[in-house]
Write a structure and sequence with these properties.
Length: 343
């Protein structure tokens, strides 16, 4: 069990983290005495800082007399020290105006959420689109393309549109495409998307598909349209913000981070954990596994109706990000996105 910190140690740690978040430079005892208003000598502060270093809350770079907060310090800060407040009226208004509402494609609203989070935090905003398995079937339509191909357009109850071109090995007229669309939309209406393909296979096994040519064609179209489950999309806005952080002055470190964000596998795994948890998650430094140096954090929370999580919204930034500001902004953005989906 970790040794509890004294009140003075907590105050000193809090002040060091605030100072480091603000400047990005290692914090020394003399600097702390000058800027944080402690009514003790710099020697006393130096002793407290040495104790915090021994306990794993601070580390000392080789080239500096100052100290840096460790992941453990940030975790203690986020879980214990900071007191969160709702975003101010200006920020709330910017978020509400930055996320398009009714009459706008869902993806535009999601990208708007990522952009406004980047603008307000100066870090990268990230949004995951709802998974098809999270939605409910609404309708399906077919548009004829060239050379025996058809575009299947599947729409769920939340307005999310999934387009998939399919190649046909049978003839079908435009009139039959319309009738197939109507048949499948009535057959599959209000089914969870993950159950749609199973229902089509069940219908194909019935006798009617054997003697009704149109039904057979419609069901084959349905199978083709749902053959490979579409995956969620990840929108990241503002990755260039990392170029402004002194932690990423090292070119190789920056390249490694950008490769991870572009490849997205680790990021999607983290965001999937957030959605399954159905509550905000904060991955600090090495917890995120997004950067070899352990200097990247992720603050993310699910969005969606009260009874289920559809996707995830968050902020990716340096470990020394201003959590006190970022956390409420992410929470409020998720609330706005949830209300957009319910409208």
């Amino acid at each position: 069990m970790a040794e509890p910190l004294s009140d003075r140690a907590r105050e000193v740690l809090h002040a060091i983290i605030r100072e480091y978040i603000s400047t990005g430079d290692p914090v020394g005892s003399q600097q702390l005495a000058r800027t944080s208003g402690f009514e003790v000598s710099s020697a006393t502060l130096r002793n407290v800082m040495a104790d915090l270093e021994e306990l794993g809350y601070l580390e000392k770079p080789h080239t500096s007399a100052g100290r840096l907060p460790t992941d453990r310090a940030y975790r203690f800060y986020v879980d214990t020290l900071i007191r969160l407040r709702d975003p101010n009226p200006r920020d709330r208004d910017l978020i509400q105006r930055g996320i398009p509402t009714s009459g706008t494609p869902l993806e535009d609203a999601l990208q708007g959420a990522g952009r406004i989070l980047h603008f307000l935090t100066r870090h990268a905003g990230v949004v995951v689109t709802p998974r098809p398995t999270s939605g409910t079937f609404h309708r399906i339509e077919f548009v004829r393309l060239r050379e025996g191909r058809v575009l299947a357009i599947l729409v769920d109850q939340d307005g999310q549109v999934h387009n998939r071109p399919v190649a046909l090995d049978f003839e079908i007229s435009q009139e039959e495409l319309v009738r197939a669309s109507n048949y499948l939309s009535e057959l599959l209406g209000k089914l969870p998307l993950e159950q749609v393909r199973g229902r089509i296979e069940q219908e194909l096994a019935q006798d009617q598909a054997a003697y009704d040519q149109l039904v057979a064609k419609a069901l084959k179209l349905g199978l083709l349209a749902t053959g490979v489950p579409p995956t969620e999309k990840v929108f990241i806005e503002g990755t260039g913000s990392f170029l402004e952080a002194p932690e990423f002055a090292d070119v190789e470190r920056m390249k490694a981070l950008f490769r991870t964000l572009e490849e997205k596998t680790r990021l999607v795994a983290l965001l999937d954990r957030v959605q399954r948890a159905r509550e905000m998650q904060i991955f600090i430094g090495h917890e995120s596994d997004l950067s070899p140096g352990g200097d990247v954090s992720l603050v993310a929370t699910p969005y969606g109706p009260a009874d289920r999580s559809l996707g995830t919204v968050g902020v990716i930034g340096p470990t020394r990000m201003n959590y006190k500001r970022v956390i409420p902004l992410v929470q409020f953005t998720a609330q706005v996105l949830s209300s957009v989906l319910e409208d």
